[in-house]
Amino acid sequence: YSKSSAGRHLARSYVERGEYDKAIAYYREALSAAGLSAIANREMLRELAQVYLLKKDYAAAAQALQQALALDLAPDVADYLLLARAQHHLGRYVDVVATLDGLRDKGLTLDAVQSQQAAALYYHAGAYAQCEGLLRHLLELQPDEPLHWHMLASVYLQQNKKRQALDQ
Residue 82 in contact with residue 110, Cβ under 8 Å? Predict the structure, then answer.
């Protein structure tokens, strides 16, 4: 416990100072000591993934997030969104769509900000039908948000649904 806990605190300290390589080393050491609960390990893996994202090491970030999702815990929307983001940076658009579809398959609910993130990732991955559904949901939550209307019109145009685009 003490080795994992100390490693985690040191890693966080190095992240705050912008010393990402040292932070990564301490996160890995803390995880390998296996002294913390699965919940704490998931949080550490998420933090480690965020450090990798800061370093633009998207493959390592995706690997850390896949480890976090493999833990026998209730799934967390944030982990799926971070994984999809890392996959997007790697140009693995099919994986982005599969990861985001996993949110729906697990029955997870997204708040407005998470829905916006997922819609943007779906859009950039070319999954316009899924993006359309999320945008419709966002419009129910925020009907006065012009960006959602604009994005929905763009999604319709991408699907060659000119009539619906004009209606927007």
Answer: no
Tokens of 56: 């633009």
Closest CA to 124 of 83, 81, 86, 88: 88
| Tokens linked to 166 | 């004009």
Angstrom distance (rounded) from CA 52 to CA 151: 30
DSSP 110: P
pLDDT tens per residue, range 65-82:
999 999 988 889 999 999
Residue 91, H or E segment: none
Buried b (16+ CB within 10 A) or exposed e, 48-79: bbebbbeeebbebbbbbbeebbeeeeebbbeb
Rounded to two decimals, the pTM is: 0.85
